[in-house]
């Protein structure tokens, strides 16, 4: 009892010290919580102010730059009023930035293989490797172009809260950083949106520009299938995965460093050595059995963009639905619902078949991964934690201090074991999350590859660099004569473009230019439609381009506009503002009725140019559409105009755009086929009165009288004929056609007389018909 009474004061003091320690432990998180709350309030206040400013700017910008706002506030009594100031305009990517970044996006093996080399694509390994990190580094130069930018600020805040969450997890076990976790999720979403906004803006500036990269990507190159899928889905998926990976991988790494340090103080260097060996063995085993998640993710994304193909058809699940919506009327006329249903079913089944295969692979891998991380790691960890219990010499600094401080040996060892066990559990959790993050990184590699290929190919197309089969050796002088059909056909490859396009010429001039259909991915090269075309159209020399179907008439317009490459020779044309094109299919944009007339100008461009709605009404009168504004509800009416206008109205609306812009030259490609001949003539004469030189692509002889020259594409080995309408030869041709028509008219009277004779004969035969009372219906011959 005496001994016990001597120990009593020490026990009381120990209890008091423990109570004091608990009180101080409870008080410790208060400064941290206060700091987090203060930061949250500041950030929330900043974001709410920013959102309020954005709403205010949106309310003040009702005069839309897209031309859908009311004109009454801008045009009063014929006077032009300056538009209100709107929010800060978007700063587009400069050509210097494109030129600086293009070197970081050389063609990858997948992109350079093209769609015709599927085996080359399948041989490319997609995963977390050197190429993956190089691609990520290249894309990061777009995501974070400089140190002082919005993305850097969000990233710093994100990192700060990741550190705070780890700190709170260590200090306050009950709180577990719940507040900071919510802030991290918010900042992760903001970081993803910031990445996506900057990357999408960069891609849009690269995709939509004066070099018509969008047209080249769709028609002149086959390395990107489904560009819309890349821009809308893959970019978003990449940014979400990248922002999520930073959160999911950043905190576990920080936890691993902290917990390893704390554990080393408990189990010593020897225990940490064994733990490190377990890390290496685990990583090796998981890497050996890890499926190619990056490749699987890339294939899944590709199936979304190209999930069905056969020898006659190639498409994707989304575009199959889009195609059905676009061509619903034609499919209904043909009663093609069954076939379209089978196409949709096949595209969906192929996609689902691949997704199910991924699930089967994942379940086996996840079971093995969970077994290794949750059971093997725990067994190894507990074994290492028990080392200081049985071998005190192997313990860490904290174990030695506990024994040296006078604590009982058994109590000290038990305390060290429990502490090490808890640290080991936290470390196992952090390690497990790191392993899961590695799997996410492997899947990110697939998205990274697709986004990198998109940017790389767009950079090349924007610079006019194409890929195609190697040029074949052709006979010398094979294109020396435009009229020699016996010359060997020259090989035209997208990788061998030698022609020249000159701008600023007062006219349209072709010198030794072949019209060639580009065929990306075709080993035989492009098809030559017209051989060595030489023509010079001066202002006022209205020219009609005619010929059978498929001989290159529309190709003439595509060459002048720069849509098709000039493989050989030299093309000279006016500046872009002095020439206007009206294609075969009438295009009606999204927007108001006013936007349909002034396209591609916006309402703001119209006001800046000093144009008024009275002018627009005058233009509609010239194309016989003056009734449209009243019928549709005014200039500001917004509808799906392609479903509102008839075929003739669509074509006349496109002619109205021509009269609005008043270019020096206009290329009209079968743009009045649905318009009556009298209105067509009035529009052609008005265009000539406006001083517009017309180049019409048509095969209708009725348009001859509105032109001075005729370019006839024969389709016979690329031959062509150029003549002046009204020459002796042309007059002789017209006179022959008149004589032929007159001869047919002279026969009309004879045919009428013969018709009357036959009618009389039939009537006599019917009257002398059956005498048994059978009724016979009298019917004329015509």
UniProtKB/TrEMBL annotation:
GO terms for molecular function: ABC-type transporter activity; ATP binding; ATP hydrolysis activity; long-chain fatty acid transmembrane transporter activity. CDD domains: ABCD_peroxisomal_ALDP. Residues 508-750 form the ABC transporter domain. Residues 59-75 have a biased composition (Low complexity). Residues 59-98 are annotated as: Disordered. The chain crosses the membrane at residues 30-47, 267-286. It comes from the Eukaryota. This is ABC transporter domain-containing protein.
